[in-house]
C-alpha cells in the first residue's frame, strides 16, 4: 500500500514509518524541511515538501495515495492562542485529506487523545470531550469518522497522554523538560491522578493495523499502561535529574494545565481483542529510567 503520512519524522511518526516499511508498505512523508526530507529518505521512505498549512500539497499527496495516516500537530501549548492556532491548522489539513478521499473507500487514520471518564478507565466507545482546551481536535476527529458515510474508511487511534521512547515524549516528556529548566520535578495537584502511556513502537503497530484492517468509523486505544500515578512519574524524573520532587501550580503547564490535572486512566481491552494488538515495549516507568541526567 502507498501510504501518505503527515508528521512522519516526529516521535510517533518516525516509528510509524519504520513499522510500515517493515511490513512492505511504501511511505511518502510530509516534510517541512530538507532535514526532515533527508531523514525520511535515509529511512527508506519518500518525501513531499510542505507543512500542514500547504493544503494543495496535502490534497495532492492524499489523492495519490492508497491510504493516509495523519500525525502532524504544532504541539505549541505555550498559550491558549497558540494552541487554538495549531488546532485550526490541523483541522484544515484533516479536512483537505478527507475531501481528497471521499468516495474512494481508502483508509484514513487520524489520531486523538484518550478521553477522561470520571471514576473509571475510558474505553473505545466513550465519546471524546468536545470542550476544553483541546476540544477542537476532537471535533475534527468526529467529523473525520463521519466520512464513513461518504466512502472513506476512516478510523481514529486514540493516544495516551504519554507516547514514549528512551524516556522522552508526551506529557511525561514535558514534565522532564520543565524539571530541567526549573530545578523542580513537579506535578499538578497531589500527583495521585493517573496517566495512560504506550511505547512509540507499540503505538506505531496499532496505526498500521488500523490502516490495514479497521472498519470505517471506528476508534481504537493505543494504551499499554492503563494509568501511572503522576507523582510516581515525577519521582523517577527527579531522581534521574537529581532535583527535588513536589507539587507545582497548574499554570506551570501552560494552556493544558487543566488536562494535566485530570485523572485519566484508559483501557485497550477492546482494541487488543478485535485488532489483535499486543504491546511489547517497556512500560513508561521502565523507560523513564533512561532519562539522561
Automatic annotation (TrEMBL):
Q: Which domain of life is it from?
A: Bacteria
Q: Give GO MF terms, alphabetically.
A: aldehyde dehydrogenase (NAD+) activity
Q: Where is the NAD-dependent epimerase/dehydratase domain?
A: 3-215
Q: Offer a single GO CC term for the protein.
A: cytoplasm
The record's section on InterPro entries has: Epimerase_deHydtase, NAD(P)-bd_dom_sf, NAD(P)-dependent_oxidoreduct
Q: What is this protein called?
A: Nucleoside-diphosphate-sugar epimerase
Source organism per entry reads: Gordonia humi
